[in-house]
Write a structure and sequence with these properties.
The protein is of the alpha/beta class and 977 residues long. Helix content is 35%, strand content 12%. The strands form 8 sheets. Strands 2-3-4-5-6-7-8 form a 7-stranded parallel sheet. The chain has a 7-stranded mixed sheet with strand order 16-18-17-31-30-29-28. The chain has a 6-stranded mixed sheet with strand order 10-15-14-13-11-12, sandwiched between helices. One of its GO terms (biological process) is carbohydrate metabolic process.
């Protein structure tokens, strides 16, 4: 602010005669000469009654027909210029506005609402963004601009053309009863920047913004709804703190300023006059010192800060004389309208003063695009926008992921590195905690503790586990913190001493002033509110999927000044969100859903799950269909449904262990089979190289009918020599329920592998290569492939559903059946491996037998995409990943890598894999599964089905081209493609 403000204010105190002097003609920023001519023409044609009416903005409630009738009456009889709508259903607002605009015959209404965090602040069942105080934690203002714009777009869809937001108050008083979370914080400079960004966003969407509550309501302990607050500060302090955001907004082109009801003796000490009625403040600062020519609107004139001192009509007259253009929420609009009209006719209010305001009002309506009629509106689109789109949710999560603030992190309590250990979660507070439990469960097992238990009992139950205490705030509509219950306060204090305990505060940060114990927790995370996105972002921070980035927008006592906020290196875990966050157009994903529906409709598979991650974020997660066809045991596919991966086992269990051996120098691509497995020395396979086995180029046949060797030659039933119906030391290998294989059979498999003929070395896809590689793994890992994969890969990934023999770890009904085997095992295969060769080995083999949920398999794919790093673990070096995922031979006859399938070399442009790059690598499974990693698009793709269970038509799934058809649709939705 210029120093001239001070001499101007001093001058005004002694020269009240300036009050009657007209200001310069209003020119709204951006209006063309033609627009100005339209404004002048319309203003000239209006009667005095119409002009005075334009200055009134009555409050409109729609709960009863009488309220609707009263509002329409005021439009007809008082020619009001706008309406301010309060809480209701969005459908009711749309209906009313359609009627109201028809009643406003000459000049369309400026329909307005107070929507500081979006439509949810006033309209039931609509979308809400985080509070401004939460956005105050953001490091830059880009997201604030985007929030303002999204809110503005939703407003216009609803027919709302003015939003009485944002609050430009600098909240320096923790006990402020009315501002609190509505403010962007206590730093005037940061508040000013965020206010300006919000205003730009909203006005770029075509909605008039209004900064409030001028000259600043943030330093009060009094609510102006109830009495007149006092700002007892010097003019210099007010200039440096309270006024700074308002001045920046005014100089930046904000459409309107809302004047607050405050007593500011440094600016006007006469008779405890409210600032909203003070010409020295409204006219002196806004109009003359800052030369602001936008709209000035009073705060509601029924508030006791004004109505307690001025009667209805008198308050409105004083507000106009002070320089206000529009009068919000009079106690009695009709009475006030007639009083103002009489004051003009009597000369108390100069007619020029009315002309100035009407010029501004009409210019503002012109700028909003409604002067010559409101745009046509599609109610269905309006309601869709009001309830929130995918892009709204994505932006909301973007804000929260950058706002969550790590207040302290002693002894590196965060992030939680162990994704296997069960975390004990204690939910406190009046709010709902289900979201937090669910989101934490995406990363590790969670045990919810009883909040009614004693502190001693809670400490006992959590011993040996990480204790996370979450405080969930109650009403999202509360501006100020609620009182922390005495029992919660006692528990919060008592549990701070638990080793490694973490506090997550999902409530107004000012509530922490009520406590001291929170500072003693090893780690404290502030998520600001109990919004769904705050819960998700907090869970992501806890587990290191997202690094905390927020900075405290307000002080929280000693040791926690504004700007506090620690961080840590993220662990590379998958985070969660929405397609548009990672450059995928959600509007283009309809083809994906159609293809998934087609899989079920054509009987290609009963159901499945699709998971796609881009940029390290799960952005598509679709469960479709059921686990079985028309069976009483069938159930809908859920995120926890586990599938038989079939040949995806090769790359998800066997290959990572081979890669680790390679990484540690135990084996090389040039290693011969006889060197890795001496039992093959002297056999025709002894000189086969590791590289050849991995790329199916060693000359092995496509397969051997192992299970047929175990059938009775006459009956074709399982031979009693090989099988028993109960387990024993002689028959320990479980093939299926009630069917066990003899212990010596793996040696028989090895013998047959050793003797089988070799063919010329060329690419022939063969399970036998991975039978042999399983033997390699077993030699170097004494615990065997099953336990090695679990300990070296699956558990460090946090992939707790992944592994062989799933029935040892989970109930059968969580697993999708892979077959109703009527030939060999003669039973429903649910949790038993589909592949008969793997079944003969007890369900554990190098080529098949691994089971997983789609999400856990995506973790493995993400680890590969991140060159061997995930969850804080280095599984193998970047060079090893590169070596195993590039072409092994790079010829048209063998386009594989050392383990994976890659884009065919020299294929026709319409080849099935034409949609992927040469960097991509993948593998599919016979049961209808696929894992693909596409580094060029930073993308992981997982599709799991149980197509082998009751496929209605042979090869319908493969013939439908679903694996790559769905992938192509997703890649086609990426922005810029």
């Amino acid at each position: 602010m210029k120093n001239s403000l001070w001499w101007l204010l001093a001058f005004l105190v002694g020269n009240v005669g300036l009050l009657a002097q007209p200001a310069g003609r209003f020119t709204y920023r951006g209006l063309s000469a033609a627009d100005r001519q339209r404004v002048d023409s319309l203003c000239g044609a209006m009667s005095l009654e119409e002009k005075v009416g334009q200055m009134f903005v009555p409050a409109v409630f729609l709960q009863t027909p009488a309220q609707v009738s009263r509002a329409l009456y005021l439009i007809d009889s008082c020619h009001v210029g706008g309406v301010s709508l309060y809480r209701n259903e969005p459908e009711a607002v749309l209906d009313f506005l359609a009627q109201a605009q028809q009643h406003s015959r000459r000049v369309p209404l400026l329909s307005a609402m107070t929507l500081e965090r979006g439509l949810a602040m006033r309209l039931d069942g609509t979308f809400g963004y985080p509070w401004p105080l939460t956005m105050g934690a953001l490091g830059n203002d880009t997201l604030v601009y985007r929030v303002g714009r999204h809110i503005g777009e939703a407003c216009r869809q609803m027919g709302i053309y003015a939003n009485f937001a944002p609050s430009a108050d600098v909240n320096t008083e923790p006990e402020n009863p009315i501002i609190g979370v509505r403010s962007f914080g206590e730093d005037p400079h940061r508040v000013a920047g965020k206010v300006a960004a919000f205003v730009r966003g909203m006005q770029d969407a075509g909605v008039l913004a209004s900064v409030k509550h001028f000259p600043g309501h943030g330093a009060t302990r009094t609510d102006s709804h109830k009495e007149l607050p006092v700002l007892p500060f010097s003019a210099r302090r007010l200039e440096e703190v309270e006024l700074q955001p308002f001045e920046k907004a005014c100089r930046g082109g904000v459409a309107s300023v809302m004047t607050g009801h405050l007593y500011v003796p440094a600016f006007d000490s006469v008779g405890e006059r409210p600032s909203s009625l003070s010409e020295r403040i409204v006219g002196g600062i806004l109009r003359r010192a800052w030369n602001y020519q936008g709209l000035v609107i009073t705060d509601a004139l029924n508030m006791r800060g004004v109505s307690g001192r001025y009667g209805c009509g008198e308050a409105e007259i004083e507000a106009i004389l002070a320089g206000n253009d529009m009068l919000l929420y009079s106690e009695d609009t009709e009475t006030a309208y007639r009083a103002v009209l009489a004051a003009v006719k009597q000369g108390r209010i100069p007619r020029e003063r009315i002309e100035q305001s009407v010029q501004r009002i009409l210019s503002a309506k012109c700028a909003a695009g409604i002067l010559e009629g409101v745009p046509p509106r599609a109610d269905s689109l309006a309601l869709r926008a009001a309830r929130g789109t995918e892009r709204d949710s994505a932006l909301c999560l973007d804000v929260m992921e950058r706002a969550v603030t790590l207040l302290h992190n002693r002894e590196h309590a965060l992030p939680l590195a162990d994704a296997v250990d069960t975390v004990c979660y204690l939910p406190l507070g009046a709010g709902e905690s289900g979201d937090m439990v669910r989101y934490m469960g995406l990363y590790a097992p969670v045990k919810v503790l009883d909040r009614q238990a004693s502190a001693a009992r809670i400490l006992e139950q959590s011993q040996g586990h990480t204790l996370v205490v979450g405080y969930h705030g109650g009403s999202p509509a509360a501006f100020t913190p609620g009182k922390v219950a005495e029992r919660d306060r006692a528990l919060l204090d008592s549990l701070a001493a638990a080793p490694g305990a973490v506090l997550v505060w999902l409530d107004n940060p000012y509530a922490l002033w009520q406590l001291e114990g929170w500072k003693r927790y090893p780690a404290a995370v502030l998520a600001y509110e109990n919004l769904w996105a705050a819960n998700l972002a907090a869970a992501e921070v806890l587990y290191g999927a997202v690094a905390p980035k927020g900075k405290l927008p307000v002080s929280l006592g000693e040791g926690y000044p504004r700007g506090t906020g620690e961080t840590f290196r993220p662990l590379g875990r998958l985070k969660f969100g929405f397609p548009s966050q990672e450059g995928i157009d959600p509007e283009k994903l309809g083809a994906v859903d159609s293809l998934l529906a087609d899989i079920v409709a054509t009987g290609s598979a009963p159901g499945g799950r699709l998971v796609v991650a881009r940029g390290g974020r799960v952005v598509i997660d679709r469960c479709f269909g059921t686990t079985m066809y028309g069976d009483s045991l069938s159930r809908a596919v859920t995120p926890g449904t586990v599938y038989d991966l079939a040949s995806v086992t090769k790359v998800s269990a066997t290959l990572p262990l081979i890669m680790q051996l390679y990484d540690r120098g135990k084996i090389q691509f040039s290693s011969r089979l006889e060197d890795m497995l001496p039992v093959y020395r002297g056999s025709n396979k002894g000189k086969v190289l590791l590289k050849e086995l991995l790329a199916h180029n060693g000359g092995l046949p496509a397969g051997l009918p192992f299970y047929s060797y175990t059938l009775d030659k006459n009956t074709k039933e399982p031979s009693e020599f090989f099988y028993a119906d109960t387990p024993s030391p002689e028959y320990p290998l479980e093939v299926a329920e009630g069917l066990y294989m003899r212990a010596s059979y793996p040696d028989t498999v090895t013998a047959r592998l050793r003797k089988c003929a070799l063919r010329p070395k060329r690419m022939v896809y063969s399970d036998l290569d991975f039978y042999l590689l399983r033997e390699v793994v077993d030699r170097y890992y004494p615990e065997g492939i099953e336990q090695a994969a679990l300990g070296q890969v699956f558990r460090p990934l946090g992939a707790l559903t992944m592994g062989f023999r799933p029935l040892l770890r989970m109930p059968a009904d969580s697993i999708a059946p892979s077959d109703n085997d009527t030939l060999f095992r003669r039973q429903l295969l649910r949790g038993y491996v589909h592949d008969s060769g793997a079944a003969l080995l007890g369900g554990v083999s190098g080529h098949a037998g691994n089971f997983s949920s789609a999400y856990d398999l995506a973790k493995y794919g993400q680890m590969l995409l991140q060159k061997g790093y995930y969850g804080g673990h280095r599984f193998f070096s970047e060079q090893t990943v590169d070596r195993f995922t590039r072409y092994a031979y790079a010829t048209a006859s063998n386009s594989r890598s050392a383990g994976f399938v890659k884009k065919a070399i020299g294929a026709a442009p319409d080849h099935f894999d034409a949609c992927v790059s040469s960097q991509a690598y993948w593998h599919t499974g016979f049961t209808g599964t696929m894992l693909l990693v596409e580094p060029e698009q930073d993308l992981v793709y997982v599709l799991l089905t149980n197509r082998t269970y009751g496929e209605k038509k042979a090869n319908a799934f493969s013939d439908g081209g679903y694996r790559f058809g769905i992938l192509e649709a997703i890649l086609g939705a990426i922005d810029g493609k």
